[in-house]
Amino acid sequence: MNHFRNKTAGVVLLSALALFTGCSKTDSAGSGAPAAASSSSTPKRYEVKSGIVHYEPVSMMGVKTSETLYFDDYGRREARETVTESDIMGMKTFEHKMEITDGDYGISYEIKKTVNGKDETSKEATKTDMKEMREMALMMGKALDVEELKKNFDYREEGSEEIAGVTGKKYSVALNKEQPDARAYGVMYKNIVLKSQMAGITIIASGIEENAPVPASKFEIPSGYTVKEVNLAEEMNRAGNPEAQE
């Protein structure tokens, strides 16, 4: 799983560069991608008020993952539902998870988990206070020189590509200046990532529903779960201060 995350790290950067570019264009032109903050003080992420994006399953080294993205309020509320099935060395695992971003909070919980048929579902949801980290990220974003970032990572606009019935903008970046041909590619439509590709791993949308009604339950913790609240900034400070852990 860490291998998978490392391979997609470039696409995360790619998306960030594309979003910063879109936001900077919006700020200067006064139109385009809605980057202005609402009364919630959280910037809009997408140019669509609500939607559902279905991604094709990804299989690698005995692990198959399927993902669906739900969002509302232009991405201020977002939920990623993933189903992971693995069969490795005789251990069969099934995991159904939900990860939610809602304003200043991140929420994560298991819907179902089984190992070799045994139910090991945790009924604990983690609610993470990300306010300080989000404000720090916003400040860093404002201070970033987008053109310098694009230059450092050899950011390129690669034209357009049709995916799931819509036409998105294609971008690429090189993570190593000494290997300019080893690139990460992505396709974004109204700031929604529809495709990412790096080192042989491709994540691609199979369908997108724009302005679709998304059930409020997708952004809520189900009844019967206990909630563990975590302050991310405090946890990071504690991790960097051994004395605070005692």
CATH homologous superfamily identity? Lipoprotein localisation LolA/LolB/LppX
**Total number of distinct structural domains:** 1
- Summarize the main sheet: 14 strands, mixed
Shape: globular
Instruction: From the alpha carbons, calculate the radius of gyration and give it in angstroms.
Output: 19 Å
Please report the first level of CATH classification, the CATH class. Mainly Beta
Q: What percentage of the residues does DSSP assign to strands (E)?
A: 35-45%
Task: Tell me the CATH architecture.
Answer: Clam
What integer is the average pLDDT? Answer: 80
Helices and strands, in order, run as HEEEEEEEEHHEEEEEEH
Detailed description of the structure:
The protein has 4 helices and 14 strands. The chain has helices at 2-29, 131-143, 146-152, 232-239; strands at 51-55, 58-60, 63-72, 77-88, 91-102, 105-115, 118-119, 124-129, 156-163, 166-174, 183-189, 192-198, 201-210, 226-231. Strands 1, 2, 3, 4, 5, 6, 7, 8, 9, 10, 11, 12, 13 and 14 form a 14-stranded mixed β-sheet that branches. A hairpin with a 2-residue loop joins strand 2 (58-60) and strand 3. The longest helix has 28 residues, at 2-29. The protein is globular. Residues 1-11 and 22-39 have low confidence and may be disordered.
